[in-house]
């Protein structure tokens, strides 16, 4: 199976992965925990409403996360602002002690729903068997992502670079190159696989790695001319 990897991408001596929605199904963990902590605030909301609620929190309020990465907000502040925006769409104002309770409950529950995608372990098994080192590079802090990987059964992903490791997030070249350094490879022989085509595929490619967009949802992007796969197992096919 590893022969297919080399045939598709040339000599590969290391693989780096994004974490959220690449190795770990973060959207499932987020939306499930959101519903658990918000049902009492939105009684009678139908399934379509819950799906909209989840989309607002996970996709339509990412500018708050960008402000966290820029140092303008704390992690909990951006999380609470996203929750308030999602609830506010349905006419619910979250403030005072209720906001602290909501945030604490969400922060406690979300890790319990973290799980790896089904295509992750077969790929890691194949890389282990071939002696190809791998690791993860994330736009979140190291310790938070370490707990997430371990909770998802991915403790074997021992090389982990977070934003606090080098002081910059993707797409700054330094964060990808630190992952390469820790693998002991070179950029030109290292794959970088992630679900964000700008931060993962384009950013890694600009840093000299072999960037690959993991497009699990079949998103259409006519302006993207790089490498694209719809499942991690495509690396081995």
From TrEMBL:
Protein name per the record: Hydrolase of the HAD superfamily
Cleaved signal peptide residues: none
Record keywords: Hydrolase, Magnesium
Any GO BP: small molecule metabolic process
UniProt xrefs under NCBIfam families: HAD-SF-IA-v1
InterPro entries the record matches: HAD-like_hydrolase, HAD-like_sf, HAD-SF_hydro_IA, HAD_sf
UniProt cofactor(s): Mg(2+)
Presence of the UniProt keyword Hydrolase in the record: yes
Source organism phylogeny: Bacteria, Bacillati, Actinomycetota, Actinomycetes, Micrococcales
SUPFAM superfamilies: HAD-like
GO MF annotations in UniProt: hydrolase activity
